[in-house]
Amino acid sequence: MTPQSSDSTGTPAPTRGRRRGRAAGPSIPLGSLTQREHRSEIQCQACGSSRVTRLSMNLTDGTPVEFTSCHRCEHRTWEHGGDALSVASVLDKARKN
Ligand SMILES: [Zn+2]
């Protein structure tokens, strides 16, 4: 005769439902995306990439040019006084000395 107390199980442990992923934060888009920071940003004339290297140099004949080289498509441009020079004319100038 063993008195079985069916009381041993006690009350179910209180399971506190931890809220996962706290009630989805407000979906406000960060309105401060720095776009269009037009700081003499140079773009490749061929592919539009801004990953370009720009440097000033003088051609062999003394013409100061801005040389732009694209890292993406390897397009190269030479400019003189805002005008793009063709590769041919650059080579031509380079030959002149
Ligand atoms: Zn390019």
UniProtKB/TrEMBL annotation:
Residues 1-42 are annotated as: Disordered. It comes from the Bacteria. This is TFIIS-type domain-containing protein.
